[in-house]
Amino acid sequence: MPQTVLLAEDDRAIRHALERALTLEGYQVTAVADGVEALAHAHRTPPDVLVLDVMMPGIDGLQVCRVLRAEGDRTPILMLTALVETADRIAGLDAGADDYVVKPFDVEEVFARLRALLRRTNPGAVVDVPKPVATPPARYVEAAGLRMDPQARRAWRGERELELTRTEFELLELLVRNAGIVLDHATIYDRIWGYDFGPGSKNLAVYVGYLRRKLDAPGAPQLIHTVRGVGYVLREE
Length: 237
What we know:
alpha/beta, four-stranded antiparallel β-sheet, 8 helices, 38% helix, elongated, DNA-binding response regulator, transcription cis-regulatory region binding, DNA-binding
């Protein structure tokens, strides 16, 4: 069974992005927007670990900690905070939190701290490599001379294996699965990041540039094409 995470974060973009990242990492995630919902879910279905934003409307993360600890609930709690002063971090630990991550954070740090908390509270559990929640229906995805193994998170162009980051792999997989179809910016942002960063964002263009440099060998045709004003399409011309 996958480890269960209760995530409480009032910022929609952060909540959706972190929920998606945790799910892809193999956790079973319940995401809520405030402390009231967090307490209700924690009482109804206790999770293996809680991830709480400190600053939330109504009941904030610190109050959620205090309530759960006063009830004798020892579920590990990881706090997300934009507050960097030592006194603020001490306040969180005194309220009953087990650890904290300061915003803006690297999602890999969140994963590492969650693994450490779960090992600490359940030493016999294997938490370093969570089991995937879903298995792709086919072993390989192929298009335009590209072959991808979503289970092993490996990709090749011809016989050459590509060294891709997590986000690069997910972006390329989306394009390969929709080869020949023009995907607009909003769709890609929603599928990869869980949130549309708006027309002024360069985030997608940056990652497409990363992929092109890794995909396109000298003399080989370009695979990812820009459709101006719309988005991107994968095709071999």
